[in-house]
Write a structure and sequence with these properties.
The protein is of the alpha/beta class. The protein has a single domain (2-257), classed as pyruvate-formate lyase- activating enzyme. Helix content is 31%, strand content 17%. Strands 2-3-6-7-8-9-10-11 form an 8-stranded mixed sheet, covered by helices on one side. The protein has a 3-stranded mixed sheet with strand order 1-5-4, with no helix packed on it. The radius of gyration is 17 Å and the shape is globular. 47% of the residues are buried. The mean pLDDT is 94. Bound molecules: iron/sulfur cluster. Iron/sulfur cluster binds next to loops.
Length: 264
Amino acid sequence: MEQISARSIFSPATGFIKRGGFDWSCNPYLGCTFGCRYCYAMFLPQNRRPKEEWGRWFQAKINAVELAKKQARKIAGEAVYLSSVTDPYLPAERSLELTRGILDAMIAHQPRLLVQTRGPLVVRDLDLLKRLRAVRVNISIPTDCEEVRKVFEPKAPPLEKRWEAIAKVRAAGIAVGVCVTPMLPLADSESFVKRVIAFDPEVLVTQDFHDSGGGFGADTGAAARLLLKESGWSDADYKKCVNALSRRRKVFEGEAGFFPPFIS
Ligand code: SF4
């Protein structure tokens, strides 16, 4: 882990985050030790390292909490995406508490916050999240198969831990999103659809693997697309699952699903 000093902790939104209606992004870390093989963030300028090293490094913005305390005034009432180029609940967050400190600093200014994570550690911060009037926690659950998860997300938390976490977030009265993004090969598509429908998240997002040529932030990268092809999972499999979901509830596809929570 490297420690860096940042100049700002809230950055003006760009790309699909801006198009989705966000004003700011917030990244307590750079790099990401979850190391997803399809991660779009490894291609972004903030993460200037050889792609082969993705997942093996991260930098902690060690002054993130101090900055948040000074700068949170500017995000009052505005839409914030936490986080766009890393995961705010990396294992290191357990001891560093940068995300937690940022959330604490936000409370006095009540931004509209979307937390985007694969990290069950988010439940540690429910006490703070509950104090925001407009908040949604999106958890990425892209497959039903641990073997597949280990291939595509080798160091990310197990899927059942994510389901447990999202259930706890919901039980705390906080809106939740399930992001099947990008959808990975499913062991039992029918059961997965039933489980997602039964859970009934406020927002459900799906995304296929695709090459956007850099036009859309969530490009999945050529190496990951090759892995997917080798797995035998096809566009038709993806569409079949999305159609099964769409027959039973609202499904957002791709960037259309990443929008801020509104104050009800
Ligand atoms: S958790 Fe998110 S930022 Fe981290 S490697 Fe996976 S997709 Fe990339």
